[in-house]
Amino acid sequence: MASEQLEATIAMMREMSVITGDIEADRAAIAVGGAMPDDIAHEMVTVGEATAAWITDGRRADAAIVYLHGGGYVLGGLGTHGAFGARLSAETGLAVLVVDYRLGPEHTHPASLDDALAAYDWLRARGIDAANIVIAGDSAGGGLTLATLGALRDRGDRAAAGVALSPWADLTCSNSTYDSVGDADPLVGFTQLTAYAAAYAGTTALDDPRLSPGLGDLSGLPPVLVQVGGVEVLLDDSLEVAAKIEAAGGDVTLQQWDEAIHVFQMLGAPESDDAIAKIAEFVAAHVG
């Protein structure tokens, strides 16, 4: 059963219905990029062709999380996810690099993947060992996390672990929970995500594994934590990714909150606190 706080938040979000699939309108409704919250100590850095916030509120600066925000590859940034990055730093004790990666339709695939890899390389150039780097993200950032882990594998590299929160891993938007969940998910739906997918993909086919990692080879990845809500259209993306990693002989942990919605970790409910605590446990188990 969902907590009263989560139920109230979901009800409020359903009444607001601010995300439409019209990219310009959606950008006007939420912060896109923008500044970090004033109360978060951080350093702005350049990683490849992107900017990022380097948060070192954690207890260690020799281990770090690369955090890739959600927003369908067209929305979001430091203004929407900086505070969550700071929370992860405080809870895990690690530094966090929140990447303000380039967005579509101005920058199409593989811009975001290139920026994510540049962020990993930036940490390595600072002397942080690969065994102390976690790649993490939510929604589109969760899918980008999987794509980044795969790209690292393909070049003979390997991070310590990956954390994918409600990953959007199939940009063809063909899984069954788009129909079975439908409007019960107040944050994302078929109309919005198909518009976002087209805007970011550009000339890349939507089933290209570098764009839709859930449709590709998920073998040879480091340990991966997948968290998902039971009332979200991307539920099947998470379930299928976890099953595919397991079938390939990988190490995957799937955690599901049956009454939770998309990216509930950011909603400040008891379920959010529980999920973040489990992320911290997972990170501690896999970082050197």
Detailed description of the structure:
This protein is 39% helix and 17% strand. The chain is an alpha/beta fold and 288 residues long. Helix 4 crosses helix 5. The mean pLDDT is 93. The protein has a single domain, classed as Alpha/Beta hydrolase fold, catalytic domain (Rossmann fold), CATH 3.40.50.1820. Strands 1-2-4-3-5-6-7-8 form an 8-stranded mixed sheet, sandwiched between helices. The longest helix is centred in the C-terminal third of the chain and has 17 residues.
The domain tally reads 1
* Strand residue percentage: 15-25%
Tell how many strands the DSSP assignment holds.
8
Low-confidence stretches: none
Overall mean confidence score, pLDDT: 93
Q: What is the third-level CATH name, the topology?
A: Rossmann fold
**Secondary-structure class:** alpha/beta
CATH arch. level architecture: 3-Layer(aba) Sandwich
Q: Major sheet, described briefly? A: 8 strands, mixed
Query: Helicity, in percent?
Result: 25-40%
Widest sheet: strand order? 1-2-4-3-5-6-7-8
CATH superfamily: Alpha/Beta hydrolase fold, catalytic domain
End-to-end CA span: 36 Å
Order of helices and strands: HHEEEHEHEHEHHEHEH
The CATH class turns out to be Alpha Beta
DSSP summary: helix tally: 9
Radius of gyration: 17 Å
Shape: globular
